[in-house]
Design brief:
It is a single chain. By secondary structure, this protein is α+β, with helices and mostly antiparallel strands. It folds into three domains: 4-152, no CATH class; 178-239, Roll (SH3 type barrels), CATH 2.30.30.60; 247-332, Alpha-Beta Plaits (2-Layer Sandwich). It contains ten helices and eight strands. It has helices at residues 4-47, 50-77, 83-119, 128-149, 155-171, 173-188, 229-232, 261-278, 313-332, 345-349; strands spanning 196-199, 204-210, 214-218, 224-228, 237-239, 247-255, 289-295, 300-308. A hairpin with a 3-residue loop joins strand 2 (204-210) and strand 3. Helix 3 runs antiparallel to helix 4 (128-149).
Length: 351
């Protein structure tokens, strides 16, 4: 009994010591995490910058994982486990730590790139494809660091990849074609996320995203059209927002032959100017005008030129203009004739 009791106490201490060290490290890491996150939150609120929010969201979960890994590492160092097991566990923890750091770095870089793209017209607009490229580069560097830490030479691996890359390229020819086509679309900047496109196939809508394989176009009814990037580069595409987002809105009208055309022009332009200034989506500083162009069967036809801020805004602009011009013409006595055909018998009888 005298010999067993001290041995049991010693085994308990050997077990409790690593657990205590793990607990202390975890508590210290949790406290440091809370301190750093609170400082970052105050900095983000003070500067009114989204960068602080990006850093917060990127380090919140991985930082806690790193604290757990650090606690396990410290506990293993003070345990009585075999040195071989401890060394293998340390290598495993080091690999996980590198991946955690790479994940944080990739998230921060993607967030910064997204903020940068929203502020200025960047050279490489941020889409899911560009974000994936950033992540691939960061994780690739992480893999090289891990291989270097394990003492593995990367030269044979690169040689193997060079030989096997040809077979992979042949097997994934269509996928790689779409990938490089998507990269070309992004770099060329003729088609950007948020642009309104009308394709040769008849599909039209806003560019929702450009991924590694397809370009997503969201139509006005809310449907998503997926177009392979290589196919998109071959189509004839009309981009309504490439140079300027605002666009001309043409509304055709016709008035009776007995109308005072000067009055028609004045009244129509007044109503159009009201629409530009009062309707959301109109361009307030644009001065509308009309152009007569045709002697029709039952009316003198003309086109009213207005302007909308975006492609979709043209519908509400036309809607309000038609309502208001119909009401104003009724008050002013301006007649919009029905499509009729009149026969002048007097002119016929007169030769």
């Amino acid at each position: 009994m005298k010999t067993l009791f001290p041995e049991s106490i010693q085994k308990s201490l050997e077990l409790l010591l690593p657990l205590g060290i793990f607990t202390v490290v975890m508590l210290a890491g949790y406290g440091l995490r809370g301190y750093l996150l609170s400082r970052l939150s105050r900095w983000a609120r003070k500067t009114d910058s989204r960068m602080g929010d990006v850093i917060l969201s990127a380090v919140r979960a991985p930082f806690l994982v790193l604290c757990i890994m650090l606690g396990i590492y410290a506990a293993l160092e003070f345990s009585n486990l075999s040195k071989v097991f401890v060394d293998k566990a340390d290598k495993g923890l080091s690999i996980l730590a590198v991946f955690a750091v790479a994940m944080v770095t990739a998230n921060i870089l993607c967030g910064f790139a997204r903020i940068r793209a929203e502020r200025i017209e960047s050279v490489l607009p941020v889409t899911s494809l560009t974000e994936n490229i950033i992540r691939i580069v960061v994780y690739g560097v992480g893999v090289l660091v891990i291989l270097n830490g394990l003492g593995i030479s990367i030269t044979p691996i690169l040689a193997t990849l060079g030989v096997g890359g040809l077979a992979v390229a042949l097997a994934l020819k269509d996928t790689l074609s779409n990938f490089f086509a998507g990269f070309h679309i992004i770099v060329n900047r003729k088609i950007r996320v948020g642009d309104y496109l009308k394709l040769e196939s008849g599909d039209e809508g806003y560019v929702n995203d450009i991924s590694w394989r397809t370009t997503q176009i969201k139509t006005l009814p809310g449907n998503i059209v997926l177009i392979p990037n290589a196919k998109l580069t071959e189509l004839i595409v009309t981009n309504y927002t490439l140079q300027e987002k605002d666009m001309a809105v043409l509304v055709g009208l016709g008035v009776h032959y007995g109308s005072d055309l000067k009055k028609v022009e004045r009244v129509t332009c007044e109503v159009a100017a009201e629409v530009m200034g009062e309707v959301p989506g109109g361009v307030p500083d644009f001065i509308p005008f009309i152009r007569y162009h045709t002697f029709g069967d039952s009316s003198i036809n003309f086109t009213t030129i207005l302007r909308a801020q975006t492609f979709v805004d043209q519908y509400i602009v036309k809607h309000e203009f038609v309502k208001r011009i119909h009401e104003r013409y009724a008050r002013e006595g301006i007649v919009i004739p029905y499509p009729i055909r009149a026969i002048n018998t007097e002119q016929e009888s007169g030769g």
